[in-house]
Design a protein that fits this description.
It is a single chain. 73% of the residues lie in helices and 0% in strands. The protein is mainly α. Helix 4 packs parallel to helix 7, helix 5 packs across helix 13 and helix 12 packs antiparallel against helix 13. The chain is globular. The C terminus is likely disordered.
Length: 339
């Protein structure tokens, strides 16, 4: 099962923040740079989203609405149900991070990659991930305000204005300028991808530095981390089963069910980290910990599922398990695992 190299970089960044946290003037510089990086990230997200592809994808509206329902309705309901695990398995701060995890949008790149590997409906996965990211810019902060309230570390009307200025305005600016800069963004996709990842690393360093200075890491023990991993494993398994069997009950074909399973059961680290930094402030380090762990878990599990599904025959539904058993066919399609 794959270990995402980027997750290793994230962990290294957390280690750096633990050993050398930004303090005083350095913390102010890091915070300002993090704010600028978040705005630039969402500007790039807007510049990359093809309006034409989004409009064409409306033909699969039933599938997209189902993905959105899984992402912003079913996931949060399961997150609220996990409240009963406090304080037996989870501390309250870890539960807030888990609940925040259930509110962030779905992934784009890895959903597309896994859907392609499993020979699913790739155009639908592209549009579903894009719609989820677009809706999440508005839905995630609003859901956080409703479900987390002041527990986010001071969510208020000022926080909402900050979210609009840091996330929504840059995204809309990217969309408006896409006509002129879209070609440049496409041609330099690899370089800008490195900028994306570097910006997120900066956000993580700033958040975990603040956490170290505040001393909040003393609230986490190995037993609590083990409990969090167990809860997240159950959460992922439930969503994988619901999206697969639910898609069958709704009459979706095999290719659409694959797109639904991968887009509807995953959460975006790239979108969630910057949002957590804005929403949680000094408490962001504990808030993003569940998301970082879930991100790696979903990559490992979905990579196995995609490889197994790539061997399923195309003429019929021979495998109805959300976690496929060993297939009888020897030929396998391969592809990137993505992020």
């Amino acid at each position: 099962m794959p270990i995402d190299p980027y997750v290793l970089l994230l962990l290294a960044t957390v280690g750096l923040a633990a050993l050398l946290p930004a303090r005083g003037a350095a913390a102010d510089v890091a915070s300002g740079a993090s704010t600028a990086a978040i705005a630039f990230l969402f500007f790039l997200y807007g510049a990359r989203l093809s309006t034409r592809e989004a409009v064409e994808g409306l033909r699969h509206w039933r599938l997209h609405l189902t993905v959105l329902a899984c992402t912003f309705v079913v996931f949060p309901v399961l997150g609220l149900a996990a409240r009963g695990l406090v304080p037996v398995l989870l501390t309250h701060p870890l539960y807030q991070g888990l609940l925040f995890l259930t509110l962030v949008p779905s992934t784009v790149q890895s959903s597309i990659a896994f859907t392609s590997m499993a020979r699913g409906n790739v155009p639908a996965a592209i549009c579903a991930g894009s719609f989820s990211s677009l809706v999440g810019i508005v839905a995630t902060p609003l859901l956080a305000a409703a479900l987390l309230g002041s527990g986010t570390g001071g969510f208020s009307a000022d926080s909402l204005v900050e979210i609009v200025l840091q996330l929504l305005v840059p995204f809309l600016a990217g969309q408006l300028l896409r006509r002129w800069i879209g070609g440049f963004v496409t041609r330099h996709k690899k370089v800008l991808g490195l900028v994306d990842r570097g910006s997120i690393l900066l956000v993580v360093y700033t958040a975990f530095s603040e956490g170290m200075v505040q001393g909040i890491w003393h609230q986490v023990s190995p037993v609590r981390l083990g409990g969090l991993l167990a809860v997240e494993a159950v959460l992922l398994a439930v969503m994988l089963a619901l999206t697969w069997y639910g898609g069958k009950a709704m009459g979706f074909g095999r290719e659409d069910r694959i797109a639904l399973q991968f887009a509807g059961s995953k959460k975006s680290l790239a979108s969630g980290l910057p949002m957590a930094s804005v929403l949680f402030g000094a408490h962001a380090s504990l808030a993003v910990l569940p998301l970082m762990l879930f991100h790696q878990m979903q990559l490992m599990v979905c990579a196995v599922i995609a490889k197994r599904r790539s061997r399923d025959p195309l003429d019929g539904e021979t495998s109805d398990s959300p976690l496929p058993t060993e297939p009888t066919h020897a030929t396998a399609a391969t592809g990137p695992t993505g992020r």
